[in-house]
Amino acid sequence: MNTKTKLLAVALTAFALFMAVQSNAQSVQKGKLRFGIGADGLLPVGNFSKSANFGLGITPRLQYGIANNVALTFTTGFYHFFPKDQLYTDGTTSYKYKWDMDLIPVKAGIKAFVTSNIYVSAEAGIGFQVDNGGGDSKFMASGGAGYATKHWDFGVRYENFAGNGYRNELIGLRVAYGFGL
């Protein structure tokens, strides 16, 4: 992401959080815990789209209300990406192979409601790669928006994860069912 895009993303997030703090929405109860389990559709973008067709994920999320319209979040789960066929040439022979990637995200974030049902969110954390022996970890950051009711949460997000010289980007769609604890 270039510098102008990062600055625009930060400015929009700050504006949305400011608006959320100013609103009188009662979307999150202060001091209350909520738990939700989501199914994610993951669409690779940028260079990542050259090696992966799409991904699926499952993401449990714990949410704690710090104000009546702002919550802290903790999200984990599992992402699986379905690879495209890749061609590798060693100079004399060409080989087809499939790159594989499974990731366990561990992220903390904030969710701020701008109306009683519409929210903006931001998360950051670490993704642990578990395929092919694992061992690789990636810094993860995301920003998104969504619509939540008493039990359902529909969200869209841009997510970036980078490590060991690689940067992958995706657009994620999450549908979750949640309840109070």
Supply the key terms.
11% helix; Porin; elongated; two-stranded antiparallel sheet; 64% strand; 181 residues; mainly beta; single chain; 1 helix
Describe this structure in words.
The chain is mostly beta strands. The protein has one domain: Beta Barrel (Porin). Helices cover 11% and strands 64% of the residues. The chain contains one helix and eleven strands. It has one helix at 3-22; strands spanning 33-45, 52-67, 70-76, 78-83, 85-89, 94-98, 101-113, 118-129, 137-148, 152-163, 166-180. The strands form two sheets. Strands 1, 2, 3, 4, 7, 8, 9, 10 and 11 form a nine-stranded antiparallel β-sheet that branches. The longest helix has 20 residues, at 3-22. The radius of gyration is 18 Å and the shape is elongated. The chain starts with a helix and ends with a strand. Mean pLDDT is 84; it is low at 19-26.
CATH fold type: Porin
The top level CATH class name: Mainly Beta
Mean pLDDT: 84
Number of helices: 1
Query: Helix amount, in percent?
Result: 10-25%
- Overall number of strands: 11
Terminal Cα separation, in Å?
A: 38 Å
Overall CATH architecture? Beta Barrel
Largest β-sheet summary:
9 strands, antiparallel
The coarse overall form would be elongated
Q: Give the uncertain stretches in residue-range form.
A: 19-26
As a percent range, the share of strand residues is over 45%
Radius of gyration: 18 Å
What string gives the helices and strands in order?
Answer: HEEEEEEEEEEE
Signal peptide: 1-25
Keywords: Signal
Protein name: Outer membrane protein beta-barrel domain-containing protein
